[in-house]
Amino acid sequence: MDKENFKVTLVPGSFTDDPVKAIWFMWEQSRCDDSIEVMEDRYAFLEDEGYIIDATDDEKKELVEHAKINHIKLPVDGMRPDERFKLLLQMDVPVMETLKYSFMLENIPVSFREQLVRHRIGAKVGPNNYVDDEPGIPEVTYWSQTSRVRDLQNFVQNGNFFTPELDKKEKKPIKVSEDGPGPIEQLLDPGFTDEEVFLYGLRAVQWSYRELRAREYPPEIAREVLPSCTTHRITWTVNMKSLKHVFGHRTCWIAQAGYWHPIIQGVLRELTEKVNPVFRTLANPPCIDKLTGKYKECIFQHENKHRMPGGNDPGIPCSLWIGQETNHGVNNIDNARDPRLRLNLWNDQANQKDHEEMVKMMNQYGTFWNRDPLTGDSR
Predict the structure, then answer these.
(1) Are 36 and 84 within one domain?
(2) Do 140 and 190 belong to one domain?
(3) Which helix (H) or strand (E) holds 60?
(4) What is the distance between the alpha carbons of residues 189 and 203, in angstroms, rounded to a whole number?
(5) Can you list the alpha helix ranges (DSSP code H) found in 93-224?
(6) Where is 323: in which H helix or E strand?
(7) How does pLDDT run across 16-29, given as a tens digit for each residue?
(8) Residue pair 359/348 in contact by the 8 Å Cβ criterion
(9) Into how many domains does the chain fold?
């Protein structure tokens, strides 16, 4: 099972199904002394009439007159509820903390859970690479399926494990025999693929788990031999401010977004399809200014430079960084002014595999961000 089998589902009954309306009322009550009934009339009017801040003067006059006739007091900012929600979503306003959502994540390996729980109270990019805990950001909570009572005697046959990206084709000779589980040369014929070696280890663990259970040890004892790739379910409850913070870092090309991508994509899909399409605006990488929507700066300059030709990181550099920054550490690319020329110069120095991976990732992130993956402009 690979990361494409990760599944994200909004837990029924765990969320505000009309967040635009809820936030509108909370925001409006903080700026007036009107009763809830008066505000309800105002909200209904705004929904029906579509009163928006960028309406023409004539349209505003007509709407204001209509409101007076019906004894309806318009909001000071003149914004339609969904427009106001969209604006507040991009700002760090505490009222957004009142929105909470619970997601059931399925087929999640224990190793990924260790990344997920680092967002216990929020996260920030830190000096130790990628993400560190940061006090003061509203907390999130987790509730996971436990292996203490779950019987996993057939976890290999049932596919309850995560398979990393391993070579499935090339046969290679055994490289390590000492300190192995017995005479490994007799257990594995020389010429096994990387994936076959991985699966051999899982089957050996499964045998150990079964033997301990057969010797009448409970699951909470036998589970100690289980690998970190064993999969389970976990419920992730998060308020909107914390979710924005997670999105702000985990939608990044560099910051483990490849591993997080199916989770973030699933969360975004559930929110936009089951709650409100306005949540589509969450899918911005941290290099995009949350208010202007324009590229500002990359927070992973060092990591990207190491992915350039001649660097020591085999990963693919971010296309936005190539297109928008001017200090790549490669002279001919730095001297090019046009973003697409910079990308073409990178392609000229990349091998065919890296070129194909760049095309794939640009398509993937461009669709996810709903932006041009080279300029950062909205599509």
Answers:
(1) yes
(2) no
(3) helix 57-69
(4) 16
(5) 110-116, 184-187, 194-214, 219-222
(6) helix 319-324
(7) 889 999 999 998 88
(8) no
(9) 4
170 and 39, same structural domain? no
Tokens linked to 55: 């309406």
CA distance 315 to 259: 13
Block residue for tokens 């579509």 = 50
Q: Domain limits at 341?
A: 301-369
Rg (CA), the chain: 26
DSSP letter at 288 equals: B
pLDDT at residue 139 above 70? no
Q: Is 10 helix (H, G, I), strand (E, B) or coil?
A: strand
24: phi > 0 → left, psi -120 to 50 → alpha, else beta; which?
alpha
The length of the chain is 379
pLDDT in tens, 176-220: 655 554 444 555 566 788 888 899 889 999 999 999 999 999 999
What is the distance between the alpha carbons of residues 239 and 139, in angstroms, rounded to a whole number? 8
Same structural domain, 237 and 142? yes
Residue type (1 letter), 44: A
Instruction: Pick 326 or 107 by higher pLDDT.
Output: 107
Same domain, 131 and 240: yes
Helices (H), 70-193: 81-90, 110-116, 184-187
pLDDT tier at 124 (50, 70, 90 boundaries)?
very low
